[in-house]
Design a protein that fits this description.
Layout lengths: L10 H22 L15 H27 L7 H33 L6 H35 L8 H23 L6 H18 L4 H22 L1
Helix pairs in contact: 1-2, 1-5, 2-3, 2-4, 3-4, 4-6, 4-7, 5-7, 6-7
Length: 237
């Protein structure tokens, strides 16, 4: 991946981050498009919006893995045993992320279809899984996966400093993530999400202070700081 008049120091990383931005856009389109509300099968066990979210969740985890693997291959090891720790973290994060989607997509569908007007005992259980438990597990998995990526960059730093166009593309892709964060925090019931986003932004800033030339740490700083600030500004209006 090259731009006219300028060479990129991290072309493959930009490609992976661009694919991540594309998945964020597809997730937003899937949630808002009316066509995905059609039932998947005659027994109406789920709608396409839930199936699509599960498929896009798989794409998300695969991209986390590809970014982490790229950072490990591209960098030089700073800590012995770092690879084993990253593997354990990624496995835990992927499990929690998948568990949350499996719980949330099914219970969210059941909650909306059968429990909108009454709350018998089974509906209280469904609602708790939909609104509380699955969200907590999602935040845990999401945080662990993002922590894995940032630690991969920190423990296996690259010797190639980002060039001008690298920084531009990093910022552009980070703003897509910031837009997704803002959409979830500013226009929906956020719960504990702002605290998780804030902690992730602080963690990224600390790592960037310790390793100021690492592109993925810049990416996370821009994405989470911009998303959090935009949310605060919208909420303040």
């Amino acid at each position: 991946m090259n731009l006219p008049g300028s060479r990129l120091a991290h072309g493959r990383l930009h490609l992976l981050l661009t694919l991540d931005s594309l998945v964020v856009v597809l997730i937003s389109v899937n949630r808002k498009a009316g066509g995905t509300l059609a039932f998947v099968a005659d027994n109406r066990f789920l709608r396409w919006v839930e199936i699509d979210n599960m498929a896009l969740g798989l794409c998300t985890v695969l991209l986390y893995y590809l970014v982490t693997a790229h950072l490990v291959r591209d960098g030089r090891p700073r800590r012995r045993g770092g690879l084993l720790a990253l593997g354990a973290l990624f496995t835990a994060g992927a499990y929690l992320y998948a568990l949350s989607l499996g719980d949330h997509e099914v219970t969210n569908y059941l909650h909306g279809r059968f429990c909108a007007e009454s709350l018998p005992s089974i509906c209280r259980v469904v609602a708790f899984n939909d609104d509380v438990f699955s969200d907590a597990v999602f935040l845990a998995g999401f945080t662990v996966l993002n922590t894995t990526v940032m630690l991969a960059q920190f423990l296996f730093p690259t010797d190639r400093a980002p060039r001008a166009w690298d920084n531009v593309l990093i910022s552009v892709n980070a703003l897509f993530i910031a837009a997704g964060i803002t959409a979830n925090l500013a226009f929906e019931n956020a719960g504990f999400d702002p605290f998780v986003v804030g902690l992730t932004a602080v963690f990224a800033l600390v790592l960037l202070r310790l390793s100021p030339r690492q592109p993925v740490l810049r990416y996370y700083c821009v994405a989470y700081t911009a998303g959090l600030l935009a949310t605060v500004l919208i909420k303040a209006q």
